[in-house]
TrEMBL record:
It comes from Circinella minor. This is G-patch domain-containing protein. One of its GO terms (molecular function) is nucleic acid binding. It comes from the Eukaryota. Residues 209-221 have a biased composition (Acidic residues). Residues 20-74, 187-224 are annotated as: Disordered. Residues 39-74 have a biased composition (Basic and acidic residues). PANTHER family: G PATCH DOMAIN-CONTAINING PROTEIN 11 (PTHR21032:SF0).
């Protein structure tokens, strides 16, 4: 075949062939079960008879949407004879071009009760919102930051006190009062998990055991009461400083390094410093 006899690639013949091929492949990809299901669905729609209530509702909605000006009814003809023209409004000024929509009432409430109840609920929500204190975002962030810092210091004081208790296991030390008791450990675990201490997961048996052990935990400490009160009055920063200094001076242990040194010279040569920032 010569070049003159070749078909023009810009003609619609190529597009028609592609469309027919696409329809053919689409028919082939449909399985028998899918084709049968589609046929059953079409038969079901053809044989479906709408309920009487649905037919009445559709007829009513269609009638309400119909414009009387578009139909030949006696009322419109009478208005036209009295000088009314299509597109005019009823009334001297600011009249309505369309009649008010008819809203069917459902239920046994009186007219306007739904709007009254809705307004009362909105007013109640406004009163509840007014009772709640408004928190400044900056103050809230500062409060959460201080709380996180306090929790961090508390954990560090507890860790340092536990190390002191382990190193001073032969001799008692007043700094042991900062070691957490079992009840405090349970409370810390609950706070870390973000759960209430008396939640449903806490079994009744555990709660009874906890209440029985409260009196046992309130035993007298073997240290002078004045010294204990003085230590407990210290801030968390001051407590941590005292605990870290005691570990360093008494046991040559650096809390920030997490290591115990052989002697003072070893501590001086290998430990960066006394503060956390030095590490």
């Amino acid at each position: 075949m010569s070049e003159s006899e070749e078909e023009d690639y810009m003609s619609t013949k190529f597009l028609e062939e592609a469309a027919s091929y696409e329809k053919k492949t689409q028919k082939e990809t449909i399985t028998y079960s899918q084709r049968r299901q589609r046929q059953l669905q079409e038969q079901k729609q053809k044989g479906y008879i709408k309920p009487r209530e649905q037919l009445q509702r559709e007829a009513r909605e269609e009638g309400l949407k119909r414009n009387i000006g578009d139909t030949d009814n006696k009322g419109m003809k009478m208005l036209m004879k009295m000088g009314f023209k299509k597109g005019m409004t009823l009334g001297k000024s600011g009249g309505l071009e369309k009649p008010l929509d008819v809203e069917l009432k459902h239920g046994r409430e009186g007219l306007g009760m739904a709007e009254i109840r809705k307004r009362e609920l909105e007013e109640e929500e406004e009163r509840e919102m007014a009772k709640k204190p408004r928190i400044d975002p900056v103050e809230y962030r500062d409060m959460m930051a201080n709380k996180a810092k306090e929790n961090k210091l508390h954990r560090r004081c507890t860790a340092a006190a536990v190390i002191i208790e382990r190193l001073d296991k032969e001799n008692s030390n007043i700094l042991w009062i900062f070691c957490p008791k079992e009840k405090e450990q349970d409370q810390q675990k609950q706070e870390e998990l973000g759960e209430d201490f008396n939640n449903e997961e806490y079994t009744r048996t555990e709660q009874v055991e906890l209440s029985d052990n409260e009196e046992e935990e309130e035993e007298e400490l073997p240290y002078p009461k004045e010294e204990v009160e003085a230590l407990l009055k210290l801030s968390l920063d001051q407590r941590l400083v005292q605990l870290v200094e005691y570990l360093r001076e008494k046991h040559l242990y650096c809390f920030w390094c997490g290591a115990k040194y052989n002697d003072e010279q070893d501590l001086t040569d290998n430990c960066p410093g006394l503060e956390e920032d030095d590490h």
